[in-house]
Amino acid sequence: MTMLTLETLNAADEAHFTALLDGVYEHSPWIAGRAWARRPFATLAQLKRGLVEAVRDASRDEQLGLIRAHPELAGKAMVSKSLTAESTNEQNKAGLTNCTPEEFATIQKLNADYNAKFGFPFILAVRGPRGLGLQKAEIIATFARRLGNGPDFEFAEALRNIHRIAEIRLDDKFDQHPALGNDVWDWHEQLAAHTEPGYAERGELCVTYLTDAHRATALHLAQWMREECGFDDVTIDAVGNVVGIYHGADPAAKRLLTGSHYDTVRNGGKYDGRLGILVPMACVRELHRQGKRLAYGIEVVGFAEEEGQRYKAVFLGSGALTGSFDANWLDQKDADGITMRAAIEHAGLKVDDIAALKRDPARYLGFVETHIEQGPVLNDLDLPLGVVTSINGSVRFVGEIVGVASHAGTTPMTMRRDAAAAAAELVLFAEKRGGAVADLVATVGMLEVPNGSINVVPGRCRFSLDVRATTNEVRDAAAADIQAELAAICERRGLQYTLEETMRAAAAPCAADWRQRWERAVETLGLPVFRMPSGAGHDAMKLHDIMPQAMLFLRGLNAGISHNPLESITNDDAELCVQAYQALLDQLASDF
């Protein structure tokens, strides 16, 4: 079989172009026909994007027709052997052509329920995020979960899965194998084998600071750095950071600092943090295999702690490098009464060595971090990469509104001092105020009526407030307005309140020249540059205190969900992330 090339495709007239891409999108040659006008395509990623844009620019009816052109999973077309060759191959890889009677009956019932609710067939890229094929149990679980989605969301999710199907089919046509992306994806899977008791039995991931699972993860990373990637120096430092150094042509040259965290939230995802360690590790491995040294060194750090799960300290790993490790943290106790000091000593690390971990900014060019987006924006735009403009500044509060608990049956509505109703007003105001300015968010994430009862007017209501924005000024203005509204609500309702600020973190704008390097790296892949803020905190915002920093986001699947087992990425997207990182390294080699 002759493999397709971009040269052949770019030289083809519209009819031939469409014929060459036959089967990429199921029974929908109009997509290739419209993408033809976007030639020439310099990269396969650019071709994929051109096809995606053809669908995004189509009418709703055309998009619906595309969805309906797809066969049901394990449906009538499979039974009658009338599937296209591409669909037959995909359903066969997922084992759908060999269902048990029980599995077949379950899928048929799901198909019927799905079609009745949405009016189109359930679409799933059954070859999965790695391209090898999903397990039948995973397909059925995904089917059942997506039945709970709303119609508009599920319509978009069907199109996203169609684009993933098309991507894999294009890889086959062009005989392209995302080898680096596969390695990064597989490394994540292997690291996820280390998880804590109580979670391991349920197949869940939990790696908190200096537990056995945490230490095993660190040792695994260190082993890969030494034996597989060719780092010159690998250590686990006094707080548990895994540090790998790959020297430049001159070992005394400045270094690029990079990395992210390897701890996780409880029952979290496999990619949060770890992507930012494994992507630069893959780049260093390729440099080592080529026997290549750059004009600068590369220092990759797997930060030991960022999530604040076992202890209330956050950014402990990156904070040690910036000199902001707080010695008072050592006396904090976990849920079992074990102090941080004891945990560090039990791990064979030395508390007295922590102060020496502070880095001299003069020895570094800057800090860069790749990270899964942890949000739905890139997923919604069908874009694999996004360039971060700023890490949002945040402020958090906990508060309580106090009224009078009274009988729900005998207290007239006009005579109540209802703390929960006041909190509800505040929640709605925060939602409205947070949506009034671009890149501002305000969230009441916790809401509790202590000792509440079904027949009692709430006398107390506890709540949290989280406000984030790309600038401190926008954040603080919103927080002030929400506090003023809280005071006005309580005044009007005859209530009292308390509000305590519990955390404040300054916004961390990405350095313009470093951000532009990420932008040029994305452009070399043939992809459009999309700029976006980071609503979540990252290790980069700590390094921001001492050196320039910039971040690159990678699209997450399942609407970008994170801190959740459904967190996922594809091998193709991981490949693009590695390639963008390599392009950034090449730019730096020219700049310094």
Short descriptors:
alpha+beta; 42% helix; single chain; 15% strand; nine-stranded mixed beta sheet; 16 strands; globular; five-stranded antiparallel beta sheet; 592 residues
Describe the structure.
The protein is an alpha+beta fold and about 600 residues long. Helix content is about 40%, strand content about 15%. The chain has 21 helices and 16 strands. Strands 1, 2, 3, 4, 5, 6, 14, 15 and 16 form a nine-stranded mixed beta sheet that branches. The longest helix has 23 residues. The chain is globular and about 75 Å long. It starts with 5 loop residues before the first helix and ends with a helix. The mean pLDDT is about 95.
Q: What is shown here, in short?
A:
42% of the residues lie in helices and 15% in strands.
Poorly predicted sequence stretches spanning 5 or more consecutive residues: none
The number of helices is: 21
Multimeric status of the protein? single chain
**What proportion strand?**
15-25%
Largest sheet: 9 strands, mixed
